[in-house]
Amino acid sequence: MPNMNYKPSGDFDPLEEAIRPPLDETERERSQRVAQEAEAKRISNAIDESLRLERQDRKKRRVVRLLLLGQSESGKSTTLRHFQRLYTPNAFREERVLWRSVIQLNIVRSVHTMIDALSGVRRQHIDSGGEESEDGLTTLNNGAAGHSGLSQELEFLKMRLTPLRHIEQLLIAKLVPPGEDEALALPPPPGISPSASSTYGHRSQRSRSDERAFRGQEVFVRPGTRWKGSVNRGGMGNGQQHDEEDDGRPSSEGDAPETRDEAQEVLAACCQDITTLWNDRFVREVLKRRKIRLEEFPGFFLNDIERVTALKYIPSDDDVLRARLKTVGVSEYRFEMEAAAGRESGTEWRIIDVGGSRSQRATWIPFFDDVDAIIFLAPISGFDQVLAEDRSVNRLEDSVLLWKSICANKLLANVELVLFLNKCDIMEAKLRSGVRLSKYVRSYGERANDLESASKYFRSKFSAIHREYSPLPRKFYGFCTSVTDTSTTAGILASVRDMVVRRHLKQSRLL
Ligand SMILES: Nc1nc2c(ncn2[C@@H]2O[C@H](COP(=O)(O)OP(=O)(O)OP(=O)(O)O)[C@@H](O)[C@H]2O)c(=O)[nH]1
Ligand SMILES: [Mg+2]
Questions:
Q1: CA distance linking residue 210 with residue 203, whole number of Å
Q2: Relative to the alpha carbon of 488, which ligand is closest?
Q3: For the chain, what are the domain ranges?
């Protein structure tokens, strides 16, 4: 019976205790044990050696490993799609049709965001007995308002758009492979800035329920091609879109195969109503007062609704880059640059795309070993937003802290870090619309409230962190990017590619 009162002494080592040979070991047992231990050591050494050789071989064979890091919605998967578009253009184009379901879901979500925002108006109107609410929504001129607080026309519109609820479920079932239980996650009420969120925080019960009314579910897939398989099997993956004359522009009717696709049919039938809803002055005013800037949301297609709901619609390159599908998990995408893609053809690239939300970050670490370079994406337009998964954390602050920890990480001391200050297009629009950066970033002070000054400021801040926190001196590569923009991003990715390949060659020469 074990001694339950045993107290370990200072030099007691439970592991040593467990593997110590028995005291009454015979000579024969001892020699057997020694032989087994020697064999185990030989196997372990052989594994180490084969790992070392594989690593060496990979470097010699020009296998380049690139890791994409950054918070959720920073643009990692978009950057990966961009690489694929540039360097495996044929494969990218063949897969474009598969993105149609994602875009359909993005549209449906935008419509529901508008409708949910309107529901909030109705509730407030009833709850407040018609008095002005804190955000003044009930004072809006809503034409001939019915008892719900909405005009009859809006009520009819909402009714006519109800089939989209069914389409949403259908698309989720299509995109998420069977058995993927966790595939839905709750984002925050859209478009709520920290200042607005603190306003929300001090509101009544009623306002909190309005907040809940905004909550939708964000669909995610694990990275890789499995979801594409399920879309294909869903009967719409008729990717007959080919290739030579294809210039990546939006498809117009007549140059794409018509496919039987219930979601597309319902969306086509709802196209006019969606347009009316989106262009309605009252709806715009509600969104504005609720600080819901739908145009800045990931996966925004309402301004292209006629084109993207056409029955023969095939997504353009731009559409694929603008579509939103959250990543969960970590995955390695391998591809050889297609010969047509340029002089680096033949190099095998392994680009690792990770999920960026907080619960996903622990999965990054095993990939720190043996990467050539990291592209870190910091979406600077998030300075007035909070994290979806933790509404107490400002997005910009989160990016800065993440950047510090990546710069300081000893495992990454010899890895090149490339910083993308991303979403500059959204940043520019935001600053132009009058949102003041200095209100959120005090140290910004009296600098001009424009993209040029802001990106210069952030570049110097991130560069200073890089210098201060890197365990060994290394060069800083920083770019201001809008990775959904095909023309500007192509040049930046080409520079990154050249830098990574150069460094990789240098390393393999050192082996
Ligand atoms: N306007 C604009 N949209 C962008 C930019 N970069 C990314 N997006 C959009 O932002 C959304 C999120 O981008 P993703 O690439 O899915 O983000 P991610 O970092 O992979 O996010 P997780 O998978 O959640 O970790 C997508 O709809 C993109 O099209 C940008 O520079 N400008
Ligand atoms: Mg992603």
A1: 10
A2: 1
A3: 64-88+337-431+441-505, 97-236+245-321
